[in-house]
Each structure stands twice: as structure tokens, then as C-alpha cells.
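Researcher: We are triaging several targets before committing to wet-lab work. For this one, the compound of interest is adenosine-5'-triphosphate. I'm pasting the protein sequence and the ligand SMILES. What I need is the predicted three-dimensional arrangement of the protein with the ligand bound, expressed as C-alpha cells, so it can go straight into our comparison scripts without reformatting.
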Amino acid sequence: MTFFEATCTAPVNIAVVKYWGKRDTSLILPTNSSLSVTLSQDQLHSKTTIRASADFTSDRLWLNGIEESIEKNKRLVACLRETRALRAQIEAKDESAPKLSGLKIHICSENNFPTAAGLASSASGYACLVYTLSKLFELPLNASDLSIVARQGSGSACRSLFGGFVAWEMGEKEDGSDSRAVQVAPETHWPDLQALICVVSDEKKGTSSTEGMQLTVKTSALLQHRIKNVVPKRMEEMIAAIHNKDFPRFAELTMQDSNQFHAVCLDTYPPIFYMNDISRAIIRIISEYNKDGIKAAYTFDAGPNAVIYAPQQNMREIYAILSHYFPGHAFEDSLGLKKNDTVHALPQNFDTRVSPVFSQGAVKQILHTKADDGPRVLDSAQYGLLNAEGLPKRLA
Ligand SMILES: Nc1ncnc2c1ncn2[C@@H]1O[C@H](COP(=O)(O)OP(=O)(O)OP(=O)(O)O)[C@@H](O)[C@H]1O
Ligand SMILES: C[C@@](O)(CCOP(=O)(O)OP(=O)(O)O)CC(=O)O
């Protein structure tokens, strides 16, 4: 059988100025601009293979080895419609271009981390879907143009089309053509910036981001203050802090923005709680660590998991502190944090009373990662997820 196929991976991103609220729910246009750091695909990624073939009789999707309906997923349908329309334009202009826009496709995607657990799987998942479609259809679009399509899968996905430090400019136009991601600085700009992801829970969360943010838009007066009076200035300050590699300022803005995001969740009626006792203990521990000068920043998305950003030289100390309070976690030491380790003690003058020591496994896993590059193209013949019949090689 003749077929056309592409396989790609895409990273997750963790926002330091949070997106929370839509002004248009079908085009996914946000109520404020946001900014994130793209994290290394060596630790967390989505991987997607898409095949187009005249032998296929319907569009099909497998996510983590389980078949899911495409028709019921409006966001996925929108991404497919947009990319097929762009392919059809190429075919209309160039007689010799294979007619891929009319072929059915099989999509197989896997996340190497828990889906829908507040670890930004929708961001890497839709970025990967749209990027892989663009390779399959050979679309002549840059990452910022593609981000407009990925945004319609999941807002935060638009930022995963770039590596490094990425802003999603909210735009003003009704059609969303100016609501796109742009790179503020590549990952090579600040290679020293690393992250520890503390997995507090890997279960599917209670209130999805999509539902939660619209309830906030409807009911929170504090959100209106945030949109108008806080985020525009904070975006400028954050971009300056990144350009200057000013970690203390970057960290302060990151923690303040996480705090305000969770404050607007509390200001939602009825309120939404994403953080739990463990999350709050992590905030107290990092605040104590920062008492003589800022050395680490915490941030929390729509779930209890913490992401801690810090310069590489502070990571051992931070890991030692976290290990004291949260024993019995699995540790993915991919960047060699514990190699030749002599630092096990807490820093001098660290007031251990800020938090009780939690029971074994309260924090399940700690992942050490760093700012890194955007989507990657893989060789389908070697790494593709579909077998000769166009079905997943692995089912759940
Ligand atoms: N690899 C993937 N390919 C296509 N779609 C995906 C992929 N991974 C996740 N998704 C979509 O994203 C949904 C999960 O998004 P959701 O926003 O609930 O969780 P999350 O992204 O983990 O959390 P958050 O965005 O709040 O950090 C899945 O149900 C699926 O529809
Ligand atoms: C708290 C956040 O992670 C919210 C992410 O929301 P989503 O991008 O998952 O929402 P949808 O656009 O409805 O799919 C903050 C952020 O990533 O900026």
C-alpha cells in the first residue's frame, strides 16, 4: 500500500505568566497574554505518527494505545480542517503535489507521562498533532503561523511550537489571526535555567482548565483586575528579566503570577482549588529557602504538582531540602544531580519548622529537567507508532 507518513515529538511548557480565561471559546482566544518555558523532551514529550493512505476508510485516532472518537473532539476536528484546507491550497496551485488533503488519516499518539493530570499533556499533545500534520502535508508555515492552528486544539499548545522562552500574544482581532506564539529567547539564551517537577498527584484532575477558566471569567472580579492592571506590565517585566537573565526578578514574577492565578481560582464562585496541603508546604519551603535572597521559584498549574525553576548551581541544595520533607519519591536523575553528591544536609539557618516532614510518597516523583528545544521530526521508518496495516504497534 502507498502511504504518506510523518512522526514527530513535541515538548510540554510550563507558564510563568499564566493563561486563564477565554474571550472566544471556539477559536480559543485568551483574555490575557501569557509566557512559558519549554521543557526538555528528553524527560516529557508527546510523540505522534500520522499516516495518510487511499486504503483508509475513515479518520482514526489512538491516544496512549486506546482508540478515541475524532468526530466528538471538536478541537481535533478544527486542527484537521485547518491543516487540510492549507494542503488543498498547495494542491490547487501545484498539479504535481500528491492529493493528500482528500485522503483519510490514522493518528497514533503517546505521552510518556500521565495524560490530563496537570502536566500540560494537552499542550504537548496538540502541538505535536499540528506539527506532525504540517510535516505530513509539507505546509510552508513557520512556527508562529502553526501556533494559530495549535491554539485551536488547546490554548497552551501554541507555546509548545517553540523551544526556550515563549510568549502567547493575546491579539485583538476577532478572527484570531494575531493571537499567536512568538519566541522571546531560544533555549540557548539561558542554558543555566533548570526545573524540578514535583509530581504530587498523577490522577485526572477534578475541574479541567477549560471548564475552570470560563467559570472564573463569568464570576471573578479579581480576574478583570488581573487582565487589565497586572498582566500587561508583568509580561513586559518578565520579558526584560529573561533578556537580562535576571533570575531573582524572573523568580519573583513567576511566584507572584502563580499566586495570583490561584487567587483568581479562589475568587471564582463556587471556588476552585487546585493546590493541596503538599503544594502549600512546597510554597512555604521555597519561601524559607529564599529568605536571604531569591534562589528558586515555584509555580503551579491547574493541579497540585509543583514546578520549581532555579539556576543549575542551586539544584542540589533544593533537591536535598525536598528530599528531607518528601521522603520516598522516585527520582529521575537525568541531568546527573546526585552524581558525586556530598550535599545532603539542609542549608545552614534553614528553619525546618516551616513544614512537617510528610509521609513516604506524599510527593510521588521528582523529575529534573531544563529549558530546551521545540518539536522534533523523527524517522518514521525507525520510530513510527503505526505498523504495516496502519494500526498502532502497541495497544493499551
Ligand atoms: N498526545 C496527545 N495527542 C492528542 N491529544 C492529546 C494528547 N495528549 C493529551 N491530549 C488531549 O488533551 C486532553 C488533556 O488535557 P487537559 O487540559 O485536561 O490536561 P493537561 O493538559 O494534562 O492539564 P493542563 O493543561 O491543565 O496542564 C486529553 O484528554 C486529550 O484530549
Ligand atoms: C493553568 C494553565 O496551565 C492553563 C492551561 O489551559 P489549557 O491550555 O489546558 O486550556 P484550553 O485552552 O481550554 O485547552 C496555564 C498556562 O498554561 O498558561
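Researcher: Any quick observations?
Model: Residues 221-243 form the longest helix (23 residues).
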